[in-house]
Each structure stands twice: as C-alpha cells, then as structure tokens.
Amino acid sequence: MSRTERRPAAGTGPPMEAPRFVGRRREVAQARQMLSHTRLLTLTGVGGVGKTRLAARVAETLGRTYRDGVETVELATLEAGDLLAPTVAAALGLPEAGPDPATTLVDYLADKRMLLVLDNCEHLLDDCARLVEQLLRGAARLRILVTSRQTLRVSGEQVLVVPSLSVPDHGRRPSDIARHDAVRLFVGRAASVWPGFSLDAGNAAYLARLARRLEGIPLAIELAAARLRAVPLEQLTHEVEERFDVLARGSPTGLPRHRTLRATMDWSFDLCSPAEQRLWARLSVFPGGADLDTAEAVCAGGEIHLADVIDLLAGLVDKSVLVGEQGQAGVRYRMLESIRAYGYERLDPSEARALRGRYIDHYRDVVEAHRIDRIVPDQLERYRLLRRELPNVRAALEMCLSEPSTAVEGLETATAMWLYWLLAGSLTEGRYWLERGLDLVPGAVGARAMALWVDSMLALRQGDLAVAMPRLEECHTMARQAGNEDVLPLAIRTSGLAAFSTGEAPRGLALLEESLALHRASGDLDSIAFNLYYAAVYGSMEDPARAARFGEELLALCEIRHASMSRSHAQLALGIAMWNLGDCRRAGELVSEAAEFAQEINDRWTLTQCLEVLAWTAGARGDHERAARTLGAAHALWQVVGTTPARLGYHARWHERCAEQSRRKLGERAFTAAFRDGARHGLESGVLSAIGA
Question: pTM for the whole thing?
C-alpha cells in the first residue's frame, strides 16, 4: 500500500477529544472563594497534577462573574521572556501601536473587570512576576489566575497548592473505591481505549492499587490507562507495581510525587519501540505541535525512515504520548508540556544538530512559501497558517539567532514575515527578532538592507521615530550599493510614510509616487499593490481624484488575483478616496464590505478605520444618532490599537467635523448617550450589528 493511500489513517481513527474534567469540586470552590478576595491567585504543584485543567475549570465557572469576561493566555510555547507582554497583548486582541506593549496592556485593562489567566509561567517566572505587578498596579479591578510550578513571589499573591486526586485506602469496598477521583479518571480514560470498560467487583481492587501506586497524579494515570490497549488490567497493575517497587527501594518514605510522574514517563518511554522513542524525542523540539508533513520533513532520517513516520505517530497517539487534534488543515500532533520536556531530555546530542538544521530549513521554507505580501488567492490561508505555526517559527528564529553561523537565515526569516507582523499587530515581536539579527549581521549584506527597511517601517508604525529614522537612513545608504537595488523603492516608500507622519504631506506623496514608478519599471506587481494602497489612502487629502485612480487600480488588481485580504484594504483605501471626492454612497458601500471582512478575520486595525469612515457616511445621510454611536465604537477600537484619528491625517479632519456636526444636531446629552452606547459595543465580535452600522 502506498504512503499516499495510507495517509488518511494518520491519527488512528477519530482524533482524541479534550479530556472530560473529573473531580476537583473542593479545589474549584476554594479557588473561587480565594479569587473573591485576592487579586492574584497562583495554582502551584508538581508537573502533571492538573493545574492547567483546574484553572480552565475555575475560569469556566467564573465566566459570568466578570463584566469584561475571562481571558486565558497559554505561555508554555513561549520561550523568550522579552515577548511576554506582546504575547499577552496579542492574545487579548490588542494590536501594538507603541513601542511599549506593557503600557498598552495597562491602558486597555485599566477600567476592565476581568479575570486574566496566565497558564504555565514557571519557565518565565521573573518576567511574569514583573508583568503581573505592573498590571495589578495599573488595573484596579483586574484579577489574575496563574498556573506555575513555582510561586511568583509578588506582593499580595495567594497560593493554592493543587493536590493529587483522591485515592482509596486499602481494603475499601467497590462502591467506596468508585467514589475516588483518581479511580474515576482512570475508568474514564480506560473506557476511551477499551470500550465498555467499567469498575466492578472483579477489577475494583486492581484499580485501587493502581490509583495508589500512581499517587493520584492525573498525567501518570492517563499514561497508564493508555497501556490497556496492549495488556489487560491485571497485568498492567503488576507492571506498574514492579517498576515502582524497584525505584522505591532504599527510600523509606516511598517515591515523592514528582518522582512518581518521572517514573511513569520512564516506564512509558521504555514501552515504546526504539523508533518511537526517537520520534518522541525529536518531536519535542516543536512547541506548537506538528502535522504529518512537518514530522516527516524534520524528524525522518537516520534510524527513522520516512515511510515509517505515519505509523510511529499512530503508535505514540495510542500510548497517549501524542494527542491528535483535528483541525481545518488536518490532524495536528501535540504533546502535553511535561511530556515534551521529558522527550527533549531524551534527545541524543549527537543527532540534535542535524535535527536543528532540518528544523531551521523547514521553517525558513514555510515562511517563504507562505508570504502574505503576495497578491495571491490563498492570502488568508497563508496568514492563518503562519498564526498556527508561530510558536514553531519562534523556535526556529531562536535557533538561528543563537549562533552567528545561522544569523543571516534568522534575519531573512524575520524579514519575510514583515506583513504578518503588521497585520497581526505584533510589531514589538517583529522588531525583537529583527534587531537581534541586525546586531549579529553588521556587514553590508542584502539581508541587512532588507531587514533595516522592515525594522524602520515597524518602528514608524509604533511612532518610534528615534529608531525609525536612523534605521531608514542606513537602509537608504545600503540600498544604493550594488546588489541591493531591490531595496531602494521600499526605502523611498517608507520615507514617504515618514514624511506624512511629520506633517510633510506633499513631500510624502511625491516619494510614494517615486517609489511606485520604480516598482512599475521592475514589474513587481506585489510591491505595486502596496504602493497603490498607501498612495490612495495618504494621497486622498492632497489629490482625491488621483488617489481614487490608485484605489481603483488596486481593487482591480486584487479582484483579478482573488486576493481577499488585500481586497478589503483596497476597498478601505478607495472608500476614503471616494469620500474625499464627495461620493458618500460609494464610499459607504466599499467600506461596509471591507468592515465585514475585517470583523470576520479579527483585523482590528482595518475595522477601526472602517468604523470611522462609516460614522462620516451616517452623518452625511443625516443619521446623526448612528454617526455618534459609530464614532463611539470606533473610539473603543482606537484605544485598543493604541492611537487616535488625529495621528492619521486622512482621518483627523473628517473625524472632527463628524463629531461636531452630530453633537450640534443631537445636543450634548443625546450625543454623549449614543457615543457611550457605541463604545460599549466597540469590542464585541458583532460590533457592526450591535451598532447598526
């Protein structure tokens, strides 16, 4: 049977479902009670004890308690402490508009009554402690729930040590044994691998012995239950007891809980075939998990044959080492963090370097093949793939930038993601990787010239002119050297945007047109598209008729190429130009459609600008209440993206006119009421429906 024919079998049937929550009633009640009078609660305990699941359960039960909801940020895949604040901001949907994402977070959370869950903080302990202190100082009604193997040691922190699940004493009756959470968890997991399995008089004693020997540690119980695919319960019980008896010899008090989990993972590892063991270790380098194609590309080699990877993955799923998750893009294989850390320890140093090289090459190819600065039909799918693979791309960048020999590859990868950093609002993260790379690549190479352009552009978007302008000046110098000619029109374009930001609109428009002419001469349609966007938007105030022609050309190009993301940006740009030409109806039609798409993909930067324009069109139709309400919704989002209409020249004048006209027509009291009503809906997923826009 060919590998292609076998491919649908990856994952060995339906993917595993999220485990059902078992027990923990007392701990849930205790955590809820503690959060009612403390602003910082840390759930701590040994690995595998269930801190993450308990936090999720507590958050679920408290969802309606907090007016502004509950937000959970998973930190296990984040390895760079410098990216903590921007990662939390991104998880909350906050695009960055300034160089200090922690301040953006504090400003956003200042008036929020919210529970923020930070999961898996132990590897970023100092960074988490600093951020938590800053957030609690600046947001008086914020509550924070942390999971960590260690406490943060922050003032006011209360700690709940998460215990193991309850286990039965010796000599209990089956009905008593069945009430213990460790047994209930084992029975539930056993039933998922052995349909029809249940506790009865014949197996109760074995279940009790297993639960006691595994110390009630949930992860240990799940690994043991997976073994029932291969052996009956009685044999499983003997295997576990024999293994642990050997380890416990010489310890008068038995195995401590952290050693119990370690012993269980050692046992699970030994039950794997040598090839499965190697794949477990190799897959541990993927913080974000991997699909079949990725596992084959990176992990095959040496003792692992390419054709065997699919079956080895299935074997690891059967043993509960991997979880197969079905998504729109297919099955993705992930490990719990404790299992991944164990696998990484088992990675043979002799093969780690070869694995590192394949990993870097793979993700460099992934980023290059899925660039979203291309006007292509699958633009949105590329963007979603990069979001899904971001933890793994981060790991590749860290590998590259940890050694001078691969710094150029890291710099090129970070540069190729420039539009992702912009659209995802991850400006600080983009600059973090770029500036690390620039520090390692001081020579006059093409990679440095392109990276200087991207870094200056991101800094300019954040309003950090002190960094943007020197970077841009160096970029211009390098762009005029032989071999870097492709960078020159990009540097000129960014100089044009910088001119607009400093109030030199005529000069800015001239530079944008100069850049556009250079791109036309080279036939670079992708770059032409971005120049058309900026010329249409920024030029709308200087020469709206010319700006409209740029916008029409851009929209036609996007429609011909079926580029949905760029099409929404083209609609916004053309809509602004049409507004300045006095065509209110067409402006409204274009921007309404762009707003719907931006809301669908959570592009808050575009949605914010769309709402602003829709407020103007409502006012022009005489619907001043809707105009005020839409201005309020836009105001809420302007705060989220960290800027104001005043900072964008093509918005500033019309914003003031719309607000003044609506206030005059409605009266101050009615205007304020409508504005506040819109602001309350500004962050809702259905904001357009909520405000009637």
Answer: 0.88
